[in-house]
Amino acid sequence: MIESVSRRALSGSSGSYHVRGAELARDRRLKSLAATVVFLDETQHTFQLDKRAKGQILLDLVFQHLELIEKDYFGLQYAENPTVYPNSDAMRWLDPSKQVKKQIRSKGGQFFFKVKFYVSDPSKLQEEYTRYQFYLQIRRDILHGKLQLPTSTACLIASYTVQSELGDYHPEEHGPGYLSKLQLIPGQTEEMEKKICELHKLHKGQLPADAEFNFLDHAKRLDMYGVELHKARDSTNKEIQLGVTSIGLVVFQNNIKINVFSWSKIVKISFKRKQFFIQLRREQSENYDTLLGFNMQTYRSSKNLWKACVEHHTFFRLHSPKMRPRRFPLTLSSRFTYSGRTEFQTVEDGKHRARVERTFIRSPSKRIVHGVNQVPIEEKGKVVSAPARPPRPYDNKVQSLGSREPRQAWVEGNNSDDEGGFLSLREEINTSTHTQGGAFSPVLGSRILSYVDDDTAERNIYDLPDYSEPTSSPAPQILDDGLVTIRLTPDEQGRFGFNVKGGLDLDIPILSRDTGNGELTLTVRPNALYNALAGTDEASEEEPPYRYVPDAPHSAVGSDALAQSMLLLADGLASGALIAQYEQLYRKNPELTSLESKKAENQNKNRYRDISPYDVTRVILMGCVNGDYINANYVNMEIPGSGIINRYIATQGPLSSTVADFWQMVLEAGSTLVVMLTTLVERGQRVRAARTGMVEPAVVHCSAGIGRTGVLVLMETALCLIEANQPVYPLDIVRSMRDQRAMMIQNASQYKFVCEAVHKAYTEGIAKPLIEFSR
């Protein structure tokens, strides 16, 4: 009878439970994965992960461990084959979207924390700690031979490392051979150490953060900065290396850069098996597509290069990453996309995020053990500690403060003497007001502004302000003669005439207040020139400048050459290469002298101590009772093919004591046009319309006579070249100007502005070749 009962009727009266299966599942959940991460300061830490954890979990743990805020520039690398040396081509980046255990083959996975995306300019980094991590990475790149650089640059960069670690040079403490135990550059010799020592002496007063910023600022100009090389062969089977950077794809041969394909030139990148392809944008003069192919070593290396291109283009060129495409069953090609944040998002987020004040200890350089081969850190697996030394007041434990942030190269907010009206000969006065408890000691740096028509007496009794270098508080100097004592008496509110905005002006609560009730006494020596920074120009001249022109010579003439130069100009603006080339150009021609400006009788006639006219091109006054010197240069700009020479006199804004000299110069030169590029009177007519038919030089001045003055000269020269149907190479124009007056075009932002203006004038037809030059 039981057999006749259906199975459905008995289904509710029975059951089973897999005890062993549940036990095994529990054990699997309890098992964890140990991941050891080696950091840039040679320390390491082991993180415990769930076996099924994805790469993003490990990255978050690492960033949390470091308390890193600007984390999108960094990543973790691991060796695809654990038996291979970690610095070889077998290194791969951890994919955040995949499980960690599926990416590493060994049980005890070891990862290396590294910079993945090298920032194009260190001033984009908001946090000092982020810049410090970049500093550590580049220092390792140099020591391991990954970043190739000339000896002169290596010594300069190493001197900033010494300044960061040892502080200011002190003869009593830094005796002969004090650098011999520091591992600073590969192949370090005694001669190099002497050069580094001399450069170290010039960095006096720089904090570790400032020295590291200068370190990064010079490193970014190197050809192999931030380049991860991939071995390949070209169409002729020659061995080359392909590198991916923020500006595009770079081709090297024997560690020498031979070609650059910027992102703005590339239409498409692809790979198929061991072949890697890039399709270039069709130029206006071409009626065909250009497809370049490279043979990689393996399929894996070809795909790794392709992924690196996708990641770098997305990070540096897009505002936000592209959405991951939907997967279709029949799709065979790779659909990899970069899913992280872009540089634009990171920088914008940093602008709106409150600054974090934190304290961290800087890691010292490795010591050289003579007679023992140094093993790279990845092979040692342990921390190398430096010998203990007594703490000093300038040691490397530094609190990161917002006020110590190095200035940005392109930000106009940094007060420059060439940004506004005329400044009289007033020294920047630095006063330190100490409260009784010593808890609040602000340092005030202020400059009194006045114009040439002010009736203020004794305007030239102060030392001259520096123009191109940031002002720092000099060490007290005891002078024997020629002293002038200045006493400043505060008003009823304790002010010394300094108009400083802050506190209630910005709706910010006052945390501490200290009102001075005494008399401020300053003892200065007028007309004193301090040449402590003399000779530092070589730091920016150790590499020859270059210009952005086609690699191969071409015979294009007329409109073709002009159009090609405009395409190159647009490409340089888009890729950032234009600014990089400008920053490598010398500011002063090292072969020209400025001796007249240094004479005692002429020092009062200079608005800024480091802006001096070349002797060979200076304007010489003939009938002036005050002498023949004025801070002005003749600048002649020839327009090839037209017979036109635009003549200028580039000069500083007249001081109250040099107004007569200024008008004497205008009279002797026969000038009928004076261009005033200041914010006092900005109602002048168009310069080009006013100078029609002129053969006399036009007098152009701003404050120093180099910044806005250079912009005007470059712009008019470029417009004349366009009208004459000649190619426009802005860097050549700047070089020609600087061969006649030092430091023309003051900074990168002015150079970028005028280049954009030239390109816009051409593309919008504001300036076009004249009929007589179009034939």
From TrEMBL:
The listed locations are: Cell junction; Cytoplasm, Cytoskeleton
The GO terms this record gives for MF are: protein tyrosine phosphatase activity
Q: Which PROSITE patterns match?
A: FERM_1, FERM_2, FERM_3, TYR_PHOSPHATASE_1, TYR_PHOSPHATASE_2, TYR_PHOSPHATASE_PTP
**Annotated EC:** 3.1.3.48
What sequence ranges are listed for the domain Tyrosine specific protein phosphatases? 671-752
Which InterPro entries has this protein been placed in? Band_41_domain (IPR019749), FA (IPR014847), FERM/acyl-CoA-bd_prot_sf (IPR014352), FERM_2 (IPR035963), FERM_central (IPR019748), FERM_CS (IPR019747), FERM_domain (IPR000299), FERM_N (IPR018979)
**One Pfam family for this entry, by name?**
FERM_N
- For this chain's UniProt record, which GO biological process terms are given? animal organ morphogenesis; neuron development
Catalytic EC class: hydrolase
> What region holds the Tyrosine-protein phosphatase domain?
578-761
Domain FERM spans what residues? Answer: 33-320
**In the UniProt record, which is one GO cellular component term?**
cell periphery
UniProt superkingdom? Eukaryota
Q: Keywords, A to Z? A: Cell junction, Cytoplasm, Cytoskeleton, Hydrolase, Protein phosphatase
Q: Which family does the UniProt entry place this protein in? A: Belongs to the protein-tyrosine phosphatase family. Non-receptor class subfamily.
Matches recorded under PANTHER family: TYROSINE-PROTEIN PHOSPHATASE
What is the recorded name of this protein?
protein-tyrosine-phosphatase
Which species is this UniProt entry from? Cotesia congregata (Parasitoid wasp)
Lineage runs: Eukaryota, Metazoa, Ecdysozoa, Arthropoda, Hexapoda
